[in-house]
Amino acid sequence: NGFENTTVSEITEAADIGKGTFFTYFPTKEAIFRQPGELAMENMTLAAEQGLNAGKPIAKILKSVLTASADWHEENKTITRQMSKSNFSFSTDTSSNKGNLLNLLVRLIAEGQKSGEFNKKVNAQDAALVLAGTYFTIITMWSHSEGRALREWLESSVDVILKGLSA
User: Fold this and answer.
1) Whole-prediction pTM value?
2) Nearest 5°: phi and psi at 91?
3) pLDDT tens-digit profile of 104-143?
4) Is 56 helix (H, G, I), strand (E, B) or coil?
5) Of 17, 49, 71, 161, whose CB neighbour count within 10 A is largest?
6) Three-state secondary structure string covering 64-114
7) HSE-up of 52 (CA within 13 Å, CB side)?
């Protein structure tokens, strides 16, 4: 039926759980998508930590962070499409997955500026917004199209931004 036409009653019936149980874990039907976002954020944070610990260039770390969830999205394209349809808001609230991603990107860009890899005249917050916006836009566009691999699309788009950030 698609996400919009599926009711919480239909979800709880298919899952063989009560509505009370559903609402214990999800305050709204849309909140179902928070968990895949948390998984993506965990993968992105892990990619950042591994890259920093290995002493990799920040540009490579940013690229690996923004492609860390590509495999999951490619394996779950229908869910990604539904997530993109129902989730257009962008919050910088640190309790949100999008806010956490933005903070991670700001931290990495600032580190790249500190090391001399990135232009110090560029506002790290603005650069992080551009990267995050690109990430979400590419995922949304990819989820509604056919033919192009998500990882490839993300990598080439991130490369364009990183060239602009280079010192």
Assistant:
1) 0.82
2) -115, 140
3) 999 999 999 999 999 999 999 999 999 999 999 999 999 9
4) coil
5) 161
6) HHHHCCHHHHHHCHHHHHHHHHHCCCCCCCCCCHHHHHHHHHHHHHHHHHH
7) 17
